[in-house]
Amino acid sequence: MKTIGIIGGSGLYEIDGVTDIEQIEVDTPWGKPSDRLVKGVLDDVNLLFLPRHGKGHTIMPSEINFRANIYAMKKLGAEWIISVSAVGSMKEEIKPGHLFIPDQFIDNTKKRVSTFFGDGIVAHVSMADPVCSVLAGCLSKASYDCGAVVHNGGIYICMEGPQFSTRAESELYRNWGVDVIGMTNMPEAKLAREAEICYSTLALTTDYDCWHSDHDDVTVEDVIETLNKNVEMAKKVIKKVISIIPGSRSCVCHDALKYSLITQKESISDEVKKKLNILVERYI
Ligand SMILES: [Zn+2]
Fold it and tell me: The pTM is what?
């Protein structure tokens, strides 16, 4: 059975037909993930749900224990991670309510630990193509099949937050060619790559960022209405995509560490080996 992880809002696991639901407390070398993981089965697929900001949304983006979240997914067997993420649009044609599947990221965060490595072991994984093209393709097909308006490919910039951008920043990012802006996909995508998990984002456009003339006219009610509609659509897409995702992996993600571990085996301490065992055992 394939295992698919879904990181996103807490309402996502309430998908019709999910059975065998259990909550799993996971401990990791980096502490606890954002919350207990919810495990369930749908159409012979194991699903793992993790509310990124914790139950009741108590964890702000800079406070998320990203390493624990990705490690917990790895520990419970996830080979695929769908990152369901609310974003602001930086382009006129990406309208609130549209779905967006990025194929590139810009990491503009400032105070996050973005690697499992260090403390005696070094690895440099490739991030040239930070998104799993297979998983992104599956999400794209599922989105079309569900009748969503979906934009395929483009740049997601991750900012530190928690404040939104200034107008000057927003215009700068637009000049960089950025399509959407969010606060969570970095270092999530980097850590998923280090953990050899296929990662793709299903971004839900909530509103236009502050560069847009409509920005100031949008009420909180409008944003919440769009958010709720987006979550309903995300549930439909997830239900659809699980049958499209292949049973085995042939993409580059699954052996991303193969030529990336630089430290000589004999120089890696037993303590480090033990700590990173799940990630590196195939190679050392
Ligand atoms: Zn992949």
Answer: 0.97
